[in-house]
Each structure stands twice: as C-alpha cells, then as structure tokens.
Write a structure and sequence with these properties.
9-stranded mixed β-sheet; single chain; 629 residues; alpha/beta; 16 helices; two-stranded antiparallel ribbon; 15 strands
C-alpha cells in the first residue's frame, strides 16, 4: 500500500508533467480551452480486406512449379538414355552414342532450368514482398488520414485583447485562469492575477508554475498593506490620483468631481511633504496633522514614530489651507479613518505600534508590479474595509497602464471578481490596458445588468465566455445574454376526412309529335295542228298530290354518384426563440464554457478549459507563434 509520502511525490510528478506540457506551448493569442471534435467516419481496419488482390501474387509459386518440372524432365531423360544403352548392349545395336547424348542433354538442360527456376522464384518472392510492404504503407496512410476524435484548441482571433468570463464556479475559474494564463506564459511576458474573490482562484496556476522551479510572488492584501509600499515608484501627484480615484468609487460615496478633487489635493500635499515610504500608516499620520489634532495627547501618540518632527512642522505650516469648510473637515475625517483602517488590517500589530526589530518597515514587490513571469495579488473586495484595498490596488495598476511605458510584449492581467467595480471602471481599465498593449481578462460572478451587458460585453476586440450556473435567475439572464434566433417550427397540423355518399336518379320522359301535309295541284293545256293536217289538237292534263309525315320521340335517364375525401394540412411558422434553454446553462460542467461573440464565431462554440486535456493523446497542439517584428 503506497504511503502518504509516495502519494505526494506522485502528485508532484504529475503536476510537473502537466506544467511542462501546458506552459511549453508558446502562443500569441488567447487559448481558453479545447473543443471536442468527433471524427467524421470510422478508421479502416487494415485486416478487414486482403493485403493484395488475387492477380497480384502467385508468380513465385509458378516459378517453383517450373523448377519441379525441370527436375522431372532431367530425371526422365537420364532414365531414357540409360534404357537406350542397355538395349544397345543386349541387341548389339550401336546405341551408345545416342543414349549418352540423350542422358547428357537431359542432365545439363534440367540443371539449367532448375537454376533459372530458383532465381525466378527468389525474384518473384522479393517483388511480392515489396508489393505487400507498399500496400500496407498505403493502407496505413489512408487509415491515418481518416478524421478521428480530437480536442481542438479554442483560440481567440488575433484582434481580441479582452475576455469577459460570466458566471461559473470557483473551480471553473481556477481552470480557466490556468488554461488561459498558461497559454500566454513565456519568459519575456508578465502575467498578473488580481484576485478579488477571497477564494484563491489562482492557487492552481501558482502550483503549476512553482512545480517548474519558478518563484511566484503572492501579495495578500489588506494583510500586507501596512508594510508594503505600493507607491514607491510614483510621484506625489500620481499617489493623489490613485487614492482619489479609488475612494471616489467606494460604496456610499457620491463620486462627485468636487470630492475627488479635494481628496487628490489632500493626499498629494501629504505625500509631497512626508516623502517615502508612503505607507498607509504614515499617510494617516500626515492627514491627522492637517486635521489639527496633533496638539492633543491622543494625536501625538498616534503620530509618534510615523513622522519625524520636521515632517510634522512642514504639515503644520500648510494645515491652514485645509479644514476651512465643514465639507473639508468631513473629508479629512474620512481619509484619516480609512487610512487607519487600511494600516491596521494586517492582523499582527496595530498601526501605532512600532514594527519588530527584525522586520523591515516596508516591503516592495521584487521587480515591481510587472515583473517577468507570474505575479499574484489578492485583495478581497468583500471584507471589512468596504473594498478599499481592492480598488486601490486596481487603480495602482491603472496608473501604470495610463502613464507608464508601453509594454514591448503582450502581457496579461486577470481580474477575478469584478462585479462590484462597475461598468465605467472596467471600461476605463480595459481601454488603458489596450493602449499599453496589455491583454485583460475579467471574471464576473454574476451576469451584469442588461444595460451594462449591452454596453460592455462583446464590444470591439472582446469576446464573452459563458460558464455554467446553478441559479435559475442567472440562467435566464444568461439566455438573454446569448440572444435569440429564428427557427422554423411546426405550429399546426390539421387532418380532415370527409365522406360523401349520395344517390341521384334523373328521369326524363319526352315525346315529340311532328305532322306535316303537302298538297300539290297542276293543269296543262296543249293546242296545235298535226303535221300535214288542218284539224286542231287539244290536250288537257290535271294532277294532284298530298303527303303527311309524323315523328314521335321518347327518352329516360337515371344516374348514381358516391364521393369520399381525405385531407391533411401542415402549417410551419418562423419564430424568434432563445438560442439555448436555461436548463442547458444550469447543467453545464464546471469547466465548460460557451463563446458568444458572433462577430468572431459564426455560431456558439462549446469548449472545456480543464488544463488536464493538454495531456490527452487526442489533444491537437496549437499552431506555432508567428514571428514578432
């Protein structure tokens, strides 16, 4: 039975192999996961058919039969020659020479024929072997060319520099971060993860990178805010901008330009007069001097050890410029309370207690925020400081993106848990990141409101990835996010059957009687003299005729008819329905996602971001990176 130590070593080996496989695939664009593509047809079995056709073999067997026949002929000739010699010896006939000739020719001819048959048999066998090898090679190539099941990488188009991940679980987010950041991890790139979820969603990626021997610095805020100097590279004006912008978007703040301007002026003045390191403990002490509480015993005790006497005197000289109105007094009180809360959130000592002798008062991230490799910052937005530490860290990076040097390579920054930051903050952050040539990935725990989703998601240069959720309301909102499409559906089917049985009888009886009478009368007189006679001749003729015609007609008709009718009618209508159903979103696996941008993907792409898929033999390696200019 394997021990616990052996199990840990085996787990470390597997994690190292996965990290080497995942981090070695250098890419120039996002790879969110893999898409399972089934093969179009089954591969052919090379043993299902004969290797060669019947007409392509058998020549070697024919050559072997020729050798047997030649040996038989040589043996027969030898026997015939011997018989001739024996007959000549018995009868005294001179048959010696013919017998010897027959025997010699038979032996020599048989030997030559046998040698030729053996050579031909060997040549034919070699030729048939070559045909078999070539046939097997062709069949193997054909079988390999048949499409098989494969995991194709789901990559972003080259013009995509922002990814919005909506919904999902913490485990799903951890897999998405590991797959995406692992595809862009390189020696000349910086990958930064801002974890605002308090669930350590970057822990898996940190373990993978650490298994390869690389150091992964992780700064946890607000625990380290009292000793970490976030502003060591910034001018006092920049420190004022960062803190004013971060405090302007805190819950309960109006965010007006007047309040932001007042906060920036106060922090800029304090930062310029006290100098570095600009920790929150020292900033709180400086604002308290401006609040004119340094004369009291409590104020002096809180400031003691944080500021020198010269710094306190410099602040006292300008204290008259602040706190002249009730609004400014309230703002000074808010800044003091917020700075003290941030300075005392480390859980190890209070802000007014001096640090131990063996501990440095400030710690600076090695190489800055944009060091090469992976850097993780965790600042939960759901804590007792109302998300002030998370917003300060976010605007600290935004200051680098806005006024820092453009990055030479496509670095990546991932912000997990951005639901409470607001649309305007995310748009401003992504715009500055785009100008600085830095790619961004935002992970939203919930589907943004409809107006924010329409203006923020799937905009130019961005793709939205939808992950599963078990919440019914979120699933419905996700369906609206995917959109609807036209479909042709069967809306009505009608079947009619009618039968008509009828009998009709028509009878027509008619009689026609026609009678006609024709009567004619005529008379003729003839008067003349006979030839040669003088006596007159008189002739009289008379005649009459009468006719009658009668006609009778009669007709009768009868008919019968019978009719049967059957009819079926189908109606198909075009409807506008959601592309997916809410139950499909609720049943998605934890690591599954759907790419929604129809500008880059003609249809919704289903993928899986499990990093372990890269070790599957069916996983297809991505295309090599294009050379950079």
């Amino acid at each position: 039975m394997p021990s616990e130590q052996d199990s840990d070593e085996l787990e470390q080996v597997e994690r190292r192999e996965l990290a080497e496989r995942l981090l070695s695939q250098r890419m120039d664009r996002f790879r969110w996961g893999w898409q399972f593509v089934p093969g179009q047809q089954r591969a052919l079995d090379p043993l299902s058919r004969p290797v060669l056709l019947a007409t392509e073999f058998g020549a070697a067997a024919s050559a072997a039969q020729l050798g047997v026949l030649s040996r038989a002929c040589a043996f027969g000739g030898t026997v015939l020659g011997g018989a001739a010699l024996a007959l000549g010896a018995v009868t005294g006939t001179p048959l010696v020479l013919p017998g010897l000739a027959i025997a010699g020719v038979s032996v020599v001819g048989g030997g030559l024929a046998t040698a030729y048959a053996r050579w031909r048999e060997g040549a034919e066998r070699a030729r048939e072997g070559a045909r078999v090898d070539e046939h097997d090679r062709q069949r193997g190539a054909t079988a390999a060319a048949v499409p098989r099941d494969a995991w194709q990488p789901v990559q972003a188009p080259p013009d995509v520099n922002r990814t919005d991940v909506v919904c999902g679980t913490w485990d799903g987010w951890a897999a998405m971060i590991a797959s995406t950041a692992g595809s862009l991890m390189a020696t000349d790139r910086s990958v930064v993860v801002l974890d605002l979820t308090s669930h350590d969603v970057a822990e898996d990626l940190m373990r993978l990178v650490s298994s390869t021997g690389q150091q992964v610095p992780c700064f946890r805020f607000p625990t380290l805010l009292s000793i970490v100097d976030l502003f060591h590279e910034l001018e006092p004006e920049a420190v004022g901008r960062v803190i004013a912008d971060a405090f302007a978007v805190l819950p309960g703040r109006s965010g007006s330009a007047e309040i932001r301007r007042r906060d920036e002026a106060i922090v800029r003045t304090v930062a310029r007069l006290i100098g570095g390191p600009l920790t929150f403990r020292r900033l709180a002490a400086g604002v308290r001097v401006l609040q004119r509480l340094s004369e009291s015993g409590a104020g002096s005790a809180q400031i003691d050890g944080a500021l020198s006497l010269e710094q306190q005197l410099a602040l006292s000289r300008v204290s008259h410029e602040f706190g002249r109105t009730p609004q400014e007094i309230d703002e000074l009180t808010f800044l003091v309370d917020t700075f003290e809360m941030l300075a005392g959130n480390d859980g190890r000592r209070h802000f007014d207690a001096p640090p131990p002798a063996d501990e440095e008062p400030t710690v600076r991230p090695a190489g800055g925020q944009w060091r090469l490799g992976l850097t993780v910052f965790t600042a939960p937005i759901y804590n007792n400081d109302s998300g002030a530490s998370a917003r300060i860290l976010l605007y600290r990076f935004m200051e680098d993106l806005r006024y820092g040097k453009p990055h030479e390579t496509d670095d990546l920054i991932i912000v997990a848990g951005v639901d409470r930051l607001g649309r305007d903050v995310l748009d401003e952050f992504s715009q500055h990141a785009h100008n600085a040539k830095v790619r961004t990935m935002f992970l939203h725990q919930h589907v943004p409101p409809l107006e924010d989703a329409q203006r923020m998601l799937n905009t130019a240069g961005s793709v939205t990835l939808l992950m599963g959720t078990s919440n019914a309301l979120q699933a419905r909102a996700a369906v609206d996010l995917i959109g609807a499409e036209y479909r042709f559906v069967l809306s009505q089917e009608t079947q009619n059957t009618s039968e008509s049985l009828g009998s009709s009888q028509d009878e027509t009886i008619g009689q026609a009687h026609t009678e006609s009478t024709d009567q004619q009368r005529g008379r003729s007189f003839q008067f003349g003299l006979r030839h040669g006679e003088r006596l007159p001749i008189f002739t009289r003729n008379s005649g009459s005729s009468r006719g009658t015609a009668r006609t009778s007609q009669w007709a009768r008709t009868r008919g019968t008819s019978e009719t049967t009718e059957h009819g079926t009618s189908i109606t198909t209508s075009r409807v506008f329905e959601p592309g997916v159903e809410p139950v499909e979103i609720e049943t998605l696996p934890r690591t599954a996602f759907i790419a929604l941008n129809k500008v880059h993907f003609r249809e919704a792409v289903m993928g899986d971001c499990d990093p372990g898929i890269c070790r599957d033999p069916r996983a297809v390696d991505p295309q090599p990176e294009r050379p950079r200019r």
